[in-house]
Amino acid sequence: MVSGFASVLLLKTLRSSTLRLALICIAVFGxxxxxxxxxxxxxxxxxxxSRADQAIxxxxxxxxxxxxxxxxxxxxxxxxxxxxxxxPDGGVYLLADAEFAPxxxxxxxxxxxxxxxxxxxxxxxxxxxxxxxxxxxxxxLTLPDGAHLLVGRNIADLDQFVRRINxxxxxxxxxxxxxxxxxxxxxxxxxxxxxxxxxxxxxxxxQSGLGERIPRRGTHDEWDELAxxxxxxxxxxxxxxxxxxxxxxxxxxxxxxxxxRIRGRLERAYARSGSGAGDANLIADTLADLDAVLxxxxxxTRIAQIEANARMAAxxxxxxxxxAREVAELFDAAAEERGGRLEVLGDEHVLxxxxxxxxxxxxxxxxxxxxxxxxxxxxxxxxxxLRDGAxxxxxxxxxxxxxxxxxxxxxxxxxxxxxxxxxxxxxLGLSLVAAVARLHGxxxxxxxxxxxxxxxxxxxxxxxxxxxxxxxxxxxxxIADPRAPIIASRRA
Length: 492
What we know:
This protein has 492 residues and is of the alpha+beta class. It has 10 helices and 12 strands.
């Protein structure tokens, strides 16, 4: 579970726009660092080579002065003086005749790469150790008597120094990129973690209500401030929603008493009415309207109780197939009145944990809507089965159905399709079904039955139907009168 959450968090971190922005910043910063280090390398190497060239040029000038003063003999003496003792600067000297035969100096032969060329050059000098070679920076010129003079310096130390600079710069660049990458991932993961906490709370609010709050870490940073503001907003929304709900519940509850009294008086007046059929019909119509209003208030109160989870105490293990058969028995006559038929399909025993009256009411509303809004002479089917271990009940018809764009809207309170406004009802039937589904943790799905509509309730996996469980569910199903809960719903 923890590893799965960590992998999801890592995936979200890699997809985060914060990480992309951090990588862009790293790329820009890296380009600047590379350019800066490149300039440092170029400036250092140029400076060291310039110092070496200046030293070589100074020694060449000294030797040229000796040649100008005393000719080749003086030059040979000056070269011998320069090579008499080991030089820490690694000086290289060679005087050769016109055929490049050595005359004086500390080189055994004129470098083959420099024959026929004058000016500044670089060449490799073989050392005494096998496989060892030194890089020499030198200047060559031809004297007036045709002799060739070479003055240079071993720059192996300079090359080694430059290599060390390259290694240091490369290691520094790699270290900077690694640290920048780790810092970016750490900052991004922290940001994604805080955002995921907000998203998790938002999903919990959408699923279970406004009781959840965004956790705070006590760091008093901008994320804690955002969480505090969002929690304050949720507190305010919850307060307003509770006030609206309380007002609605109070109105529905308080109006039921006077309306019930009015209905009772009208019933007594209807029973004593002897003034003619007109007055009796008027009273009967008024009673019917009052029944519709009372049924609406009853449904509103029932939905409020369900959404408040006030009916969880009545949960028992029961046989959903038996509930479906009782619903079919109740509505069989209504289907025959329209020339259609009502069928129960599927498994003989399907156990669920729930409130029997609420499930009966929900199924009854679905069947009532299928019969009432389906076509004349149509077929309505209740299918109860176990699918992948989950109890599923479906109510299908072959009527006009509900457009796909209206599937979510019809679950709202008092929402009715335009064509349904000519039929009795108040738009609370499917709202009640949705509330019952949420209470039982069931998923409510609507599908096109081509033609018609299929509404499916998918419950959480239930216990296996052994004999004892079936017997218990049968006793549970017989606790209440199956026709009692549906009276108000059919009128709704």
